[in-house]
């Protein structure tokens, strides 16, 4: 039996990283050849945001919220105890920064380590030493998984890894029942943590050029985060409080996707954004910054949405205005969302993961 553990900062969070990790884990555990668990540094919420299969065990390195880097050696020791006690054969770090705790375990435990990159090689959000862990992973990990071919090439060009680098996309889940696009909707949605990465400060500037021209329209931002106070002030200064609304963390995302007219992504950087795959699955036209990796893999410009130059706020506003003003264009783009979805098929992606996991087990034999 393959004993796999996904290592997370906190698997109860509502982010895209946690979402895709739970999706893959839930599929793997359906196969009797796999025993699957989650290990988190801690769990801040009472229950996970995303439903985890009851056959999957969850473990925590610390019983309460604890920042591992401040207790580095104790964190490594605690993680080693869990890996040893649970007989984990392969540890999948769902954030590359966690490699700093996993890689030291290899010699003492024999565990195989997969570094799963959810941003891209050139981005180090919030943690400058992420650069060091990537170089460390290139030398010591057993495999690196990127979300795009573009990021795979960035790894190969910048660090010449000693381990295989494999591009495996995030999967797109098909909602049930099949979504029916609402051409009459006057709601725009955006989603993500309220952080610098997601660029909602840029989105507010774009909204200031859209919403006053269309008083019947509403723009909802779904998600929570540390930038909320700053964004609230920015929205108030732009006098958009009645139309641009911070909804906070919502558990019924399905309802919002089904009632929306379009999805807008304003991120400064991404890996392969789950929110765009979800928007595509719900047949929503998309307007997105063409940041380095991710959106261009999902949005076929002028077919199922618009890619605008990275950080170009007037261009973002222009394309949103264009869709707001043209219901027929929204409908046509919605119909085109079903094109080019094969590479995001869940079954195909799980097969790619199984091939990687099987190859690592064979190496250990």
From TrEMBL:
Q: Which CDD domains match?
A: GT4_AmsD-like
Q: Which regions span the lipid bilayer?
A: none
* InterPro entries the UniProt entry points to: Glyco_trans_1 (IPR001296), Glyco_trans_4-like_N (IPR028098)
- Domain Glycosyltransferase subfamily 4-like N-terminal: where? 15-165
Q: Which UniProt keywords apply?
A: Glycosyltransferase, Transferase
Domain Glycosyl transferase family, by residue range, is 182-337
- The answer on whether this UniProt entry bears the keyword Secreted reads no
Q: Does the keyword Transferase apply?
A: yes
Q: State what protein this is by name.
A: Glycosyl transferase family 1
Organism expressing this protein natively: Bifidobacterium callimiconis
Give the organism's phylogenetic lineage. Bacteria, Bacillati, Actinomycetota, Actinomycetes, Bifidobacteriales
């Amino acid at each position: 039996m393959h004993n796999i553990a996904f290592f997370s900062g906190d698997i109860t969070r509502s982010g895209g990283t946690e979402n895709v990790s739970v999706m893959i884990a839930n599929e793997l555990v359906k196969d009797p050849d796999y025993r699957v668990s989650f290990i988190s540094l801690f769990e801040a919420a009472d229950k996970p945001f995303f439903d985890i299969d009851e056959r999957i065990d969850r473990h925590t390195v610390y019983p309460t919220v604890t920042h591992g880097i401040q207790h580095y050696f104790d964190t490594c020791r605690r993680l080693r105890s869990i890996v040893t006690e649970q007989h984990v054969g392969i540890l999948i770090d769902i954030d590359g920064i966690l490699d700093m705790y996993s890689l030291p375990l290899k010699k003492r435990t024999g565990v195989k380590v997969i570094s799963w990159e959810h941003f891209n090689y050139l981005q180090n959000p919030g943690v400058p030493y992420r650069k060091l862990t990537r170089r460390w992973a290139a030398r010591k990990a057993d495999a690196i998984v990127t979300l795009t071919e573009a990021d795979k090439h960035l790894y190969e060009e910048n660090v010449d890894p000693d381990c295989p680098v494999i591009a495996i996309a995030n999967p797109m889940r098909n909602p049930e029942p099949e979504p029916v696009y609402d051409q009459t909707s006057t709601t725009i949605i955006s989603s993500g943590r309220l952080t610098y990465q997601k660029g909602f400060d840029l989105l507010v500037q774009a909204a200031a050029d859209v919403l006053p021209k269309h008083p019947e329209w509403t723009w909802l931002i779904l998600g929570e985060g540390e930038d909320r106070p700053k964004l609230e002030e920015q929205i108030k200064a732009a006098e958009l409080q009645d139309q641009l609304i911070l909804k906070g963390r919502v558990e019924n995302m399905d309802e919002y996707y089904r009632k929306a007219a379009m999805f807008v992504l304003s991120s400064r950087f991404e890996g392969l954004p789950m929110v765009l795959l979800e928007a595509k699955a719900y047949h929503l036209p998309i307007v997105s910054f063409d940041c380095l990796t991710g959106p261009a893999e999902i949005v076929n410009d002028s077919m199922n949405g618009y890619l605008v130059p990275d950080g170009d706020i007037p261009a973002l506003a222009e394309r949103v205005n264009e869709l707001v003003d043209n219901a027929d264009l929204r409908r046509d783009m919605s119909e085109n969302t079903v094109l080019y979805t094969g590479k995001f098929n869940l079954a195909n992606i799980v097969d790619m993961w199984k091939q990687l996991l099987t190859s690592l087990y064979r190496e250990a034999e």
